[in-house]
Amino acid sequence: MKWRYATPLMLLLVAACGSGGSGPSSTTIPISVIAMRSPVLVTYTSNTVQTITTVPDGTPVKFTASSPAISLIPATTTVAGGVATIRVKSSAPGKYLITATSTVGTTVYTGSASVTFINQPASVNLYIALRPTINSLGELQFSIVNDPGISVFQNYSSNPGFFFTTFPEPGSPPSNNRTNAAAISANGVTIASTDPLFRLTYSIGANGGLPGFTVDPASVQATFANLSTVRPTPSFLLNWRYDTDTF
User: Fold this and answer.
1) In whole angstroms, how large is the CA radius of gyration of the chain?
2) Is the model's pTM score more than 0.90?
3) Which CATH number does the domain housing residue 106 bear?
4) Tens of pLDDT along 79-136?
5) Nearest to 139 by CA among 182, 76, 89
6) How many CA atoms lie within 13 A of 224 on its CB side?
7) DSSP state, 16?
8) CA separation for the pair 46, 71 (Å, rounded)
9) Structural domain span for residue 231
10) Among 92, 118, 144, residue at a domain's last position
11) CB 204 within 8 Å of CB 217
């Protein structure tokens, strides 16, 4: 399972990834192609960014897609500042491969990235884990902040070692896009893996888009059942899955 950090980060990998011979007179070099957002809604746009440190600015880059449902705008662009950027649209939900290719003399630079397009979801499951290892965690309080688009906090489940409570309670809309949560264990729980500890389910409004989640770092409080335990500040790992994201 791929986790999203509670504090959002967006990174561009500016590097050629090595080289390999494709014949005595040509060389193929892998390059990084990055979908800036995935999934995205059908008919919405997503940026696919290619970073090329060894291709000169002004060099054409051709993009192709694995399906005719995908529109590439434009299909060919040029490198500027080591980056070539296009917009990607889809007329149908699915997971599609976008490939970029650029040729300089006898050297071919190429790379691919997947972009997933989905229909408007009605609900989303949020999975919360902590970065291991944390020993004898007795109580954990934190606030989940959701993007606009959430309509109702539906329900939750938690690790059986914790007594888990939320405000608001299930069946209510999050006030100010915030869900406050507390997990309590009399004997302490040792966190030794990134398996999810909590799952929260939310309804999404009819035109709510694809809301995401973060944890407010100022809201995090932790106590430990074992007073001799080293007391690190928990690091949250978040993953969410929309009900229409089936690819």
Assistant:
1) 22
2) no
3) 2.60.40.10
4) 988 888 898 999 999 999 999 999 998 999 999 999 999 999 999 999 999 988 888 9
5) 182
6) 14
7) B
8) 11
9) 123-242
10) 118
11) no
